[in-house]
Amino acid sequence: MYINYNMNQLCLPMDLQAEIPANHVVRVVNEAVDRLSDTIFDSAYPGGGRPSYHPKMLTKVIIYAYTQ
Questions:
Q1: Domain ranges in the chain?
Q2: 0.70 exceeded by the pTM?
């Protein structure tokens, strides 16, 4: 239904978790959205067409953008 969404899919020479400070707002946004149930998003998705980006990923981007 959704395009594969995996926070650990990047293979970079640096550890991105180590580059982000422990008290950064992006960590709070990530944790809060990950706690939301997938059924909230699934009920709003009509289906059909090509697979969409995962709504949790898009929600994280929107919330973080609003904080900036």
A1: 16-67
A2: yes
